[in-house]
Every structure is written in C-alpha cells, then in structure tokens.
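For concreteness, we quote verbatim a single protein encoded this way:
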Amino acid sequence: MDELTTFIDAIDNKTKQNDSRELISLLANASGYLPSLQGSIIGFGRYHYKYDSGREGDCAVIGFSPRKHNIAIYIMPGFANNQQLLARLGKHKLGKSCLYINKLADIDLAVLKEIAQLSVKEMQSKYHCQP
C-alpha cells in the first residue's frame, strides 16, 4: 500500500475518506498532474516561487487537505476571477487561497472542476509547473 492510500485510509470519517478519493480523481483530471502526499496536503504538480523579499520555495499547483472539520482545497491564484463560478458552486467558505467545504455533496462538482482547471491554467501561465 502506498503512502497516499495509507493517508486516506487513516481518515476517521468515511464520507471524508470517500470525498478525498473522489477529489483525487477530479483534481488529477482537471490538472493533468498525478497526486502526491506533501505532509497533510494532497498536491498535484509543483511550481517554484520567489518573492521580492528573497523568500522562495516549492508548492503544489493545486491541492487539498482533508481536515477534521472540513476539506480545504488550495486554489493558489485566489478567487478574484472566479466570482461567477463561486456563486454557482454551492455551500462553501473562502480564505485567501483556500476553498473550504464540508463535503462534496454540498457543491456542484462540475463547477469545482472548472474552478480547478482555470486555477491550473493561470498557474501554468505564471510559473514553470512540473509534474
């Protein structure tokens, strides 16, 4: 059993387990990248960033984390260009680059896939993204 499967199987909540498996499929399809476990985040693709301050690092192009109280989906460019899609998404909350949902049944998966595809496309236009 690989570490990603072990990670998903260790989630106590069965709905969150199943939602995580479905999100892996959805985000892999939307992004074109394979999933990888990065701490408690399931990421897809990688990019290198460097701030004007000199701080730099690597991060997933898109990803999610099945947290205890919700699922956090990381939409790295943020949501400024997604307001119309967010209005159709369903029950969610937003952070700066995080989309928080309780369960996939609360949202429209086709809309989520469209948001993910737009996010990946924007990241690929700004950064050299790698699998």
